[in-house]
Amino acid sequence: MLTRLDDLLRFGADDHAAVTYKDETLTYRELRSRVARAAEGLRGLEPGARVAIYAEKRLETVVAIFAVAAAGGVVVPINPLFKPRQVEYVIEDCGAVLLLTTAERARTLTGSVRTSLIEDLGAGTPDRHEATAPAGIAAILYTSGSTGRPKGVVLSHGNLLTGAESVAGYLGHTARDVVLAALPLSFDAGLSQLTTTFLAGAHVVLVNYLLPRDVVRLCARHRVTALTCVPPLWTQLAIQRWPDEATRHLRYFANTGGRLPTTTLARLRETFPQATPFLMYGLTEAFRSTYLDPAEIDRRPGSIGKAIPGAEVLVVRADGSVCDPGEEGEIVHRGPLVSLGYWNDPARTAARFRPFPPGADEIAVWSGDVAYRDDDGFIYFVGRTDDMIKTSGYRLSPTEVEEAAYATGLVAEAVAVGVPDEDLGEAVTLHAVLTAATTTPEELRRAMEHDLPRYMVPRRFLLADALPRSGNGKFDRAELRRRAMR
C-alpha cells in the first residue's frame, strides 16, 4: 500500500532508467540510493517541517523532492522563474526551515532562512526544528492569488498518490514509456509528470525549456513516448520541423493549463498521426480534474471532458443545485483529490473549500470557473468568475502585476487585465497613468521585468491621463477590459 510520496520509487526495476538530465541518467537503484542518502542528511527535520526548493529541473531537484518526503518533511517547490521578491515571500509565508538551491540563485536572495546547496544535500545534518504542519501534508504548491500574493495550496500524500494512479491510468503509462518533463515541477501538472512516471516504473527526461527545437531534439534523442505541454509551448512546437526520428515513438501528447487553439490541435494531429491526443483541465486545489476521451475530440470540440477516474466534477448554481444541460454554472470538484486548503489562510480556504452539497460533511473545491455540460455530461469551459488572468498556462493575479508597476515609481495608476489571445490564452495588458509624461512604455516594461517573471510582464501597455472608475470609486475593470479588446 502506498502511504508516502517516496513510495512511488518502489516500482521501477533496479537497472531501468528512472530519470535523465542532460548526459546523466540515474537508474531506479541509483535514484533510490541517492534519495535514501539525502533523506538521512535531513534527519534533523521534525515531521511536517517545510523545505523550500528553488532550482531548475535537474537530478538533484528530483532527489530533493523525494528525500524531503522520505524524511517526513513538506516539500515546497518554488517556480524557478520567480524573482527574489516572490521567492522570499514564499519562504516566509510557509515558514520554511531550510532552502535548497544553487549557488547562483542563493546569491540573489537576502532572506535569513538556513540555505544549503542542492547538490550538497545529504552531506550534512540540519539543526532540529519544531514543526507545526498537520500530519499527512506532502507538499505546498504556490500559485497566484486574487489578492496579489501567491497562495500555497496544501496537498496531502493521499492527494498526490491518488492523482498519480488516476492520471497514469487514463494515460496508460507503462514501464516502456519515456516521459519528457517540459513543465515546471512547481506546477501541479509538472509534478504529476514525475509521480505518474515513477508509479509506472517508467523513464522521465528533464528539460529546462530553452527553444522549441530543443524539445524536438530531445524527443528524437530519447525516443520520447509521452509529451505534455501548455498551449503557448504547443503553439511554438506545432510550427517546428519534426523529423521522423522525433515523432515515431510518441504514443500520446497532452495539453493542460488552458484551451488549445483548434488550429494548433489540428496541426499537432497531422504532425503526430500515430499519437493519441489528451485534452486536460486541472485545478491546483484539486491537483487534476477532467480530461476529454480522445475518441470524443472530433464530436465535442471545445469540451474539457469529464472527471478523471476517482473524482467527481459538477456544474452547479450559486445555491449548490446541479445545473441543467446547457445551463452555465460554477465547476465544483469533490473527492479524494481535493486538497487540504490554502496554507496559513483560513479566510480564503473557507471561501473556496466549502461543503457540497451545502450542509453536507464533505468539502469540495468551488473553482470560480464558469462552464456548462451537454446532455451526455461533457463539460465546456466558459470563463472565470473573478479577475484572475490565465496566460501561458499560469493563473496570475492582476494585483501582483499592478504592484510591480507601482514599485517602479513610474506610474500613478495601474490596472492589469487579460485579453483573449490565440497563443497565450490571455495576454496581459496594463492600463497606466504615468508619473512623468516623458516615460515610454518600453522603459516601464524594462523596469517591471526586474521584479516579475517573463509570463507576468504585460505584453501591451495602454497609457491614459486617467483611468475610469465605477460608481463606488473603484477602477472600472470591465470598461478597461473592453478598451483593451478594441
UniProtKB/TrEMBL annotation:
InterPro entries: AMP-bd_C, AMP-bd_C_sf, AMP-binding_CS, AMP-dep_synth/lig_dom, ANL_N_sf, ATP-dep_AMP-bd_enzyme
Organism per entry: Herbidospora solisilvae
Gene Ontology molecular-function annotations: ligase activity, forming carbon-sulfur bonds
Domain of life: Bacteria
SUPFAM superfamilies: Acetyl-CoA synthetase-like
Domain AMP-binding enzyme C-terminal stretches: 400-474
Cited PROSITE patterns: AMP_BINDING
Protein name: AMP-binding protein
Alphabetized Pfam families for the sequence: AMP-binding (PF00501), AMP-binding_C (PF13193)
AMP-dependent synthetase/ligase domain ranges (all copies): 15-343
